[in-house]
Amino acid sequence: MQFFLEVLIGGLLAGMLYALVALGFVLIFKASGVFNFAQGAMVFFAALTFVGLTERLPQWFGFSPEWAGLFWIALLLTAAIMVLFAWLVERFMLRKLVNQPAITLFMATIGLTYLIEGVAQGMWGAMVRGLDLGISDEPVMWLLERHNLMISKFDLVAAAVAGVLVAVLAFFFQYTKVGRALRAVADDHQAALSVGIPLQRIWVIVWAVAGFVAIVAGLVWGSRNGVQFALTFTALKALPVLILGGLTSVPGAIVGGLIIGASEKLAEVYLGPYVGGGIDSWFPYVLALVFLLIRPEGLFGEKHIDRV
Amino acid sequence: MKLKKIWLAAVAASTVWGAAAVGSAQAAEQYLGLPSYRVGPYAAGGTGVFGGWIDYMKLINERDGGVNGVKLVWQECETEYNNARGVECYERLKQRGGQRNVLFAPVSTGITFGVFERVPQDKIPLLSIGIGRSDTADGSVFPWVFPMIATYWSQASAIVGYLGQREGGMDKLKGKKIAVLYLDFAPGKEPFPVLDRLAQKWGFTTEKIAVAMPGNEQQAQWLQIRQMRPDYVILLTYGVSNPTALKTAARTGFPADRIVGWWWAGAEEDVVPAGDAAKGFVAGAFNPAGTDFPVIQDIQKHVYAKGQGDMQDPKRVGSTYYNRGVGHGIIYVEALRLAQEKFGKGQPVDGEQMRWALENLRLDEKRLEAIGAKGLMPELALSCADHEGSGRVRFQQWDGEKWVSVSDWIEPDREVVRALVEESAAAYAKEKGITPRDCSKEQ
């Protein structure tokens, strides 16, 4: 039982990390109807830019790499770069594709993925970097001593960060003027334009917010596994979460993440040995497929009704 | 009209210049096609290995004026460690102007598999240092493939040998439990036959646990290991799955010094992102890290001091991947030298001559010392039957800042490994209808 609980809790916490990446997808889809294939690449770009800045700023301006303010300056500059990135995406990609079919926008984001990956490695090099956020990755001692459960402090903090982010984003979408405008744009580009919603500005905002989410996801995942190209693969973990939770629901990303995280770990441990192991890469997709058959819009997604 | 004339003149001039360049190239240049990977998920390894190789060739050109006066030239093609692109690069690099490629070394098991039936037709030797497949060490069946220094099978055997040394003798391995955590791709599984036979021979047990690609989440696997309570974990992972393994091991309380990785887990890029979790981790190496080797110091003096180094970050000179690249360069240049001695000094060689030289290559301690690479790689002695040439591996431990050597060169269990090589090569020959060469008649 103790082992089962350990696997389950570990899976739930890992699921929160998947949800962190899935949130970026949800944001852009919710506000623009675009399935942003480049979200994984944005996570990589954001984390690499942050680490690159922490390395280069002391060289450029001659202050100590140990200076505590460096983290915040690098974070602010990375956020500024992500805003610039959002503006460039809107100016040179989305503006040309207003009211085009969703598949066209999707294809454009595939192209964007390769561009981001190339630019990121071109700017900051191919070196794998470590990232220490100062959060301990040791087990919580009282859980270990009292219940023999090994639960990482880092995973708990990361889950809390994801939770806070979801709460903030849910509030932003539900209760702010910009949030309502974002939802209107997602429903119909032209109808939103006709009632005076500035489509271009809305797109910059939403891509910038997705950029901030990418920074948070990039820092958490980068701190866990190193800042390297493989951060782009985090998107693979987010896809089944989206299918399950629904592409348009922020809380759905969290619930989907929890279900996927827990089920993939339990499947790996209890089913894996019977089928050769290593099933946690495809099991979530099978689960998501089953969900699709029962509830195509996902657990919390909006039901799409076409009137004829 | 005027524009057209200018355009035609430019084309004519570039054609004449190009022809002259090719003409002179044929006279005193040796062309090499390099299928490098500088972008993509494994770029850290690619930039290191190919950077080290290119820097060594630059050193030979700068310091020695080439190999007996023959300047070394090369052209890169980006594979991104992708099999399809690797095969495309193989075709693209085959020829440049009038010069044919004389060696193909993709530093990727997948790409090696993709081209290894093409190389005999094109007469281009395939150099597969430290990658699969292990049975190609049997040169009688695979005359064009050279899995030099050590194959995955030799490495697996050396890892068991190292564990035996740590325990105080191979017989002490009896009853030990070893978990094998492997990335679920072809190279990750290649060592299994050797591990199985050695487990039977020495009485230890193995439990194999797969990590799905890319391996950036391993909580379930390490919880299984924790429950299993093994004496050691052999780590057969690559790329992001290396730091992830070490971090997750620390999180589940498994000591790093009880984890022994293969050489694809033993670079700085594999441990630095894991931080303190990597301290004490041991990994195999056929080219140890360090800048103390005279050849590395020569590169710094003759190449980097003149601002001509290939590495974007010169601090990476002397890193594990970089030194592995220098090792590739040494083998290439020494084979070239040997081929020239046999077929004509001061002349470029072709693929067949290169193949002969690789098969007859001998790098003893004396020669390695003369090159400035004593300790950077083991002694090599290839033959018609043995295209591996060494099989020895040493082990290094990460102390938090650098790799520290913790063993001498460890011999593989040749009886076990060679038997497997011959069995597997014979099965391949039978399947493909190949008549193995009679090596007793080869010179």
In DSSP terms (H or I, runs of 4 or more residues), the helix count of chain B works out at 16
- What are the secondary-structure elements of chain A, in order, as H or E? HHHHHHHHHHHH
Rg estimate of chain B, integer Å: 23 Å
Total beta strands of chain A: 0
- Average pLDDT number of chain A: 87
Low-confidence stretches of chain B: 1-6, 8-26
Q: CATH first level of the largest domain in chain B: which class?
A: Alpha Beta
CATH superfamily of the largest domain in chain B: Response regulator
Total strand count of chain B, please?
15
- Architecture of the largest domain in chain B, according to CATH? 3-Layer(aba) Sandwich
Task: Say what the CATH topology of the largest domain in chain B is.
Answer: Rossmann fold
Shape of chain A: globular
Write down the domain tally of chain B. 2
- For the termini of chain A, the CA-CA separation is 54 Å
Which band does the percent of strand residues of chain A land in?
Answer: under 5%
Give the oligomer, counting copies of the same chain as homo and different chains as hetero.
Answer: heterodimer
- Globular, elongated, flat, extended or rod-shaped: what is the shape of chain B? globular
Helix content of chain B: 40-55%
Main β-sheet, spatial strand arrangement of chain B: 8-7-9-10-11-14-15
